Amino acid sequence: MVRGRRIASFAAAYLVRFLRANYRVAREIVTPGDGLAPAIVEVPLRSRTPFEIASYMSLVSLAPGSVALALSEDRSRLAVHGMHAGDPEHFRADLRELEDQMLAAWRPVGPGRDATGDDSTRRRTT
């Protein structure tokens, strides 16, 4: 039941993120101005499994104003384009927060793991 609550909490948080992104893009369309600040950033990934990586890339691209562009060959970094990324570090931190929230919902929590289910003894699968 705890995992169900974590997933529901993440879904609610993502819905808020999604609605805010829609509002920003809609506002830019209706009142064109200086709101665009495009940037491409590279984000180090904590996601390890193909499911986690695909989920994260989909969540990034689903929200208007951002799109996952490229995954590094070793699957450790993701290039992301953002329409409203005037401060690339803030944009990168926002993407990290999304990944942390997703991992906290997806991964099991148990002994030796933190809230995101991270276990330093586990390795990235290839």
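the 2nd protein, sequnce then structure:
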Amino acid sequence: MEALNIGERMGSLPGASNALHEVWGWMVWWVGGKQFACEFTAAPDAKPPYAGRHLLSLKCDPDRIRELRAEYPNAVLPGYYSDGRTWISVDLNLVGSPDGPTEELVLDLCEMSYRLVFAKLPKRVQRELAASA
């Protein structure tokens, strides 16, 4: 899965912005000043099963996390460097493979992450972002 497809989808969401976190080397996505996604390659010496994987971390509904982890145990991991109860990390190298989710599912999960974070923003911020779209 190419980062371009991810960037196009998330860039089309109202108020979404992204920037490279220079210290970590991660591409981070925000809405209303709150992170909803990040794309990165885990260090080779990171703890298993994350080491060396090209990951996309997303906020996710806890019930959906359980479903995804059961269906794609090698491709959908508990969120790297985040709360695994509410975040997932998708191995982008497995997207479209027999062991991984489809590209469309990953793009849908990007939108879900955005919606979950957007819903927690103050109503004033939500209105401002919706008006600027």
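The first strand starts at residue 16 and ends at 21. The mean pLDDT is 93.
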